[in-house]
Amino acid sequence: MTNEVMSAPRDTLQKFIFDNAAVRGELIEISDTWREIQARHAYPKAVRSALGEMVAASALLSANLKFNGAIVMQIFGDGPVRLLVVECDAQLRIRATAKLAPDAELPDDASLTQMFNVNGKGRFVITLDPADKVPGQQPYQGVVPLTGEDMATVIENYMLRSEQMDTRLWLAADDSVSRGLLLQKLPRHSGKDDQQKQASEAEDLETWNRAVMLGQTLKREELLSTNIEILLKRLFWEETIRVFDPQHPQFHCSCTREKVGNMLKMLGQAEVDSALADLGELGINCDFCGKHYAFDKVDCAQLFASDAPVESMMPASGSIN
């Protein structure tokens, strides 16, 4: 372990790798960013917990992105909670929001099924959205049924089904902090003879099974109450691991007036004109950061006078009021 890990600030993602085995791990601790996400919303306890876990998971997965862009994680369904959205880019800049039915009532310990999957229509979506798309390029999107009673299981099932990668997650969040542990078994590179390959794969599997077993000793309350420097030592003190320079997540909302205008164009001129007739001016509040954008009749006319193509947004950033 290094002193650099010990001196890291609160919002920290720490990568590590097991020596002589194709197994990697990450620990994350998010407090300031998580409180910033919650500052403009009063979500029920069960929603806060699920969204906080999703925030930690998005950063854990984004830390391994190999392109300049963002990962967008969404859960949607037919329950009292309609949508969870978390967006995290390669610099670990995060924003998140949730949308509930107007009459939503939830017990504090509501499961994902109770929140999203009442009639089996819940879905989990991961979108990889490059920042420097070429004309006509669409984001990659994977959609799977919402399988699992907790966030970690849902994402593990997605990674195995869509990415064919063994991934284990331990996630926890409360009002103050969001923390998580990720372990992944990586594929071995070719170039060895069969005997060497078999020996390496056996060592990888042994290390993987041992790491998962150690991870399984981690309880939710321990994860919530223990900072990641201590957790790293406590869990893997007998292992030979290498740690890397820590990364630091932060809250960032990418909303702009241009993007909000693009959202209005996606609604169509007829719907926008109808809303203008009723309201006189359209006010759009960003669901993520609360910033207000106003569009009057002249602004909207200029939007639809433009021949610029409408580009899809992942996800939509606000609602008309």
Automatic annotation (TrEMBL):
SUPFAM superfamilies for this protein: Hsp33 domain, HSP33 redox switch-like
Coiled coil regions in record: none
Top-rank lineage group of the source organism: Bacteria
Keywords attached to this entry: Chaperone, Cytoplasm, Disulfide bond, Redox-active center, Zinc
Pfam families per UniProt: HSP33
Entry keyword Cell inner membrane: no
Keyword Cytoplasm: yes
PANTHER family recorded: 33 KDA CHAPERONIN
Protein name (database record): Hsp33 family molecular chaperone HslO
Annotated source species: Massilia hydrophila
